[in-house]
Amino acid sequence: MTATPLTLTIVWHPSFAGGSVVAETIAEWFEPLNASNLITGLRIPVRIRREPESGRPGEAPLAIALGDADVNLVLVLGTADLIEAAKGPWAGFFQSLVDGMAQRGIRDTLMMAAFDDKSHELPANVNFPESMESLQSLQALRTYQWDEKIVVLADGKWQPGPEFARLAVMVADNIAYRLLLLEAKEKNPDIEDGDLRAPSQTLFLSHTKHDPHGLALAEAIIALINTRSNQLKVFFDAQDLRSGQNFWNQISHAIADSSFLAIATDRYAGRPVCQFEVLEAKRLRRPVFVAYLVEKGEDRSFPYVGNVPVRILPKQPSPAQIDLLLLDCCLEYLRSLSFLREARPLKDKLTQAGATVDVLSRKPELSDMARWNTMKVRPTAVVYPDPPLANHELKLISGLAGNIVFKALSEG
């Protein structure tokens, strides 16, 4: 594995004035300078390819060095001018890209976001290797057909539009799909690029119907997902539980395959079903995100819903706020998948040194003790994401965990 687990490269033609806004805004979420706008702190390097390598107008940009990252997603902002350039001076750029992807198996994704009806796919003059022939039938995002715009021109300045978060969600979900596909192929070598047998992201909505605004948010999320051409799935008990089957088993199995959104309202923490769902999500090591809609307060905050990222929302979030919440959830899910993959070399190193290693995609917490105590072989080392725990918290965890060494990834 390379030093960089994931890389996102955005390609657009210099004539597309909105391209810079798309790239800069995506970079704010995927590679922020600080974690203030990205609660989880996930940082995926964002590269751009627009200007010609030679500096002479009209010529192709610098080739994409796919080998610098373990997994790449290349997002092409498709316009008529870009497709025309791909037929001529940019043909070598795209030929190098598809050839490089073919040599790397299924580690990379080429994603086309079409901004007009002339940019659905790369032109026929790009010769696709046999293993990459599927790209000739690339499923493009027809963003020009969306109800709103990804970028808008306001007061003479290009700005992110109402549909920007939707594009960002689909980028994050596509990277997550690539990681899931690679994981599935390790178990089943017959899995191939675009194979629908590979798992996809499902969002489990944990809420209480005793707070109407929490239920309303869950229903608004479902309505938004169901009316859009994205790959996100959702689990909502009222519509997905099968009658005549064990309730608790269905909930547990649904959580096991999902990312988990806790819609925390005033009565959420006190509801036994919600408590069970949170504990199952922690036990099953699922990525958890909290939408905090508490208005008056809680009689008792449920301690096990802590140690996860939280976004504070108003009682009636706007569609734009719901979009950003979905982006938060997708990035937390992606962060979890990415960290487990990135931590493999350190896990292997510690294992070779004789340790029994457990890898967490979040900081260790007291609820993990129960799992460690029930393992057939109790871990002697635990790896978790940076930054390292502060000494006072590490002292508490270590004092209860006994003979376990805790290591942030950078401390390996």
How does this model look, in words?
The structure is a single chain. The chain starts with a strand and ends with a strand. It has helices at 19-30, 80-87, 91-103, 164-187, 212-226, 237-240, 247-256, 272-283, 319-342, 344-352, 368-374, 391-401, and strands spanning 4-11, 46-49, 69-78, 108-114, 141-142, 151-154, 157-160, 202-206, 233-235, 259-264, 288-292, 310-312, 357-359, 381-384, 405-408. It has 12 helices and 15 strands. Helix 4 (164-187) packs parallel to helix 9. The model is unreliable at 35-41 (pLDDT under 50). By secondary structure, it is of the alpha/beta class. The protein has 3 domains: 4-187, Rossmann fold; 202-341, Toll/interleukin-1 receptor homology (TIR) domain (Rossmann fold); 343-411, no CATH class. The strands form 4 sheets. Strands 2-1-3-4-5 form a 5-stranded parallel beta sheet, with helices on both faces.
The rough form would be described as globular
CATH fold category name of the largest domain: Rossmann fold
Please identify the top-level CATH class of the largest domain. Answer: Alpha Beta
Number of domains: 3
Q: Give the C-alpha Rg.
A: 23 Å
Q: How helix-rich are the residues, as a percent range? A: 25-40%
Query: In this structure, how is the largest beta sheet organized?
Result: 5 strands, parallel
Strand content: 15-25%
User: What count of helical segments does DSSP give?
Assistant: 12
Give the strand line-up of the largest sheet: 2-1-3-4-5
Number of strands: 15
H and E order: EHEEHHEEEEHEHEHHEHEEHHEHEHE
**CATH A-level architecture of the largest domain:** 3-Layer(aba) Sandwich
Distance between the termini: 16 Å
Task: Report the uncertain regions.
Answer: 35-41
pLDDT averaged residue by residue: 88
The structural class is alpha/beta
